[in-house]
Amino acid sequence: MSETYSVKMRASSDGRHVSGAEKIVPVGSVSKVASRLVERALSHERGTPDFINVKIESLSSDILRLKALPVMTHVVATPAEGRALAARLLAEAGIANVDEIMVRFSETHSLRGAMLLDADTLERLEPDQSRGVRATYMDDAAALAKGTAGVKNHYAEAIVLATKVQNAPNIIAEICVSDDPDYVTGYVATRELGYRRITVLKEKGDPNGGRIFLYRGPRDGVAKTIEFLEKTPVLVDDVPTLSCAANAPRRFDGLADALDARQAAGLSRRCRTLEGPTGPTAIVDGRELVVFASNDYLDLARDPRVVKAAADAANEFGAGSGGARLTTGTQPPHVRLESALAKFKGSEAVLLYGTGYMANVGAISALVGKGDVVLSDELNHASIIDGCRLSGADVLVYRHGDMEDLDRKLGACREHRRRLAVSDGVFSMDGDILDLPRFLEVTRRHDVFSMVDEAHATGVVGCTGRGLAEHFGCELPDVLMGTLSKALGSEGGFVCGSKLLVEYLRNMSRPFIFSTAPGAPAMAAALAALEVLVAEPGRVAKLRENIALFVSELARHGVSVRGETAIVPVVVGDEKKALAASAALEELGFLVPAIRYPTVARGAARLRVALMSAHTPEQLRAAASSLAKILKS
Ligand SMILES: *Cc1c(COP(=O)(O)O)cnc(C)c1O
406 and 458, same structural domain? Predict the structure, then answer.
């Protein structure tokens, strides 16, 4: 590593710090990185600096490699909550007096470095108390490997710093709050907990902030700790990225800004990895959680019969289908599944799609077009909305579940060529069931197409899980859409209808025609799941028992919710409160997502509890009581 350099930039205006950054780079990138750091200093939003110092040094000593602390974000609504959470986390590191420590941020404000505090006596330990301790000579190893280091990724920089600090001798924790009055997010870090980002740690407008390193050890060890922080060069591996904007060219700036705006509004989203097979529990970020968020309502995705069917089909037919259904993609499992689904739903014919989303988009956009009209419930699923938009038909939105409004609006659009009324059968964010008999009465009286989405009804609604027609004892709508991806534990979508309708879609529906057929393993898995469902209707009954138990347990704790289906919404209202409640539940071991705008209306954020037949009574009771407790506090 003799060809490696440290490049540091500090910029100030009127003696006030404006911007600073440092990189560890190979010799070939030194000048490029130096000039990019200067650009960064000159374009800082705090203003143009009058002094920029760039320091370039060769790093002769060996560079220590460290693995990045694991990162976790806790979303909280208020500074009080954030501080309470920080206190709880730090208590695990044996630090009791977090409130007294937080007060010290009024002193760190003027420091260029961090405050080094004795974790127990809260005495300041660093010899130069007007400057503090500066953790320096560190970088993200991946940036070095790429040759040209990213120069604008505060998130990665913070993790690199926190990782170095937690590896310093006798440091047991760090608390960091930004000194930017508008930036309220901060973190606590310990070696065991990792880097715990807390979305709100101070009031907006509060200029106090900085870093506090907590030391526990002999006084004669302080010098060694400071030496490590200020002198030892460190490269950190596996730094996770939040913003991928770090190295992006200019034309991507708008994308990064849009993401930042989402983030600032508490609306940014991320994928979380659930380890192990889909089921009522999962390992998330290293902890086992009880999952109240899965659409695998009947626990069929990991059922050995279902899994074996998929494996056998992969062996027999291959992993992928190799073509669209109309060319080379139709294999025996596709044909078998279509006829089994038709029998199960009691329809003449069925057409499979790659996903439920495609089934909705494909059916609606084939049935109606320019000059036609679709009447759509205001709470319909996004895939229905997208199908309506793509179709080019006029779209009239009627009030949720309001058949009189539907009736009135149908009466007002008689001049359109084709008319289609479409509704979720079970509304995906509210869990309520469409009044199918009335929907059919209105649509037939007006002689318009009726379409119902049974994504959350199949396997759930009706004594044996056949859906709304079974539940109400009525006929099927003209177009019945469903998915294989929820209670059937696989993936793919389908549309049931008359032979005429299905033949029409087979010829006219673009997502069916122009997309590769779903693979035989997924089809065989869905078929096996359907067979289990038919053979074991007790699963549907068990799910219903679980719903009743959960709702009555919540009621016992004073929370009243609707329990018509496996989706039990607990409306909180405020987005950040919903996020905070979800985070608090996760702390207690329950995965219950907060659903926010744009999935639901602004101010109608909620916890969306999804129940499974496989949840145990103990899990349901514990979740209900925790949820009630959190809602009250
Ligand atoms: C999940 C869902 C879909 C989409 O089904 P996928 O198979 O996941 O693409 C369509 N409609 C509703 C109501 C859904 O909840």
Answer: yes
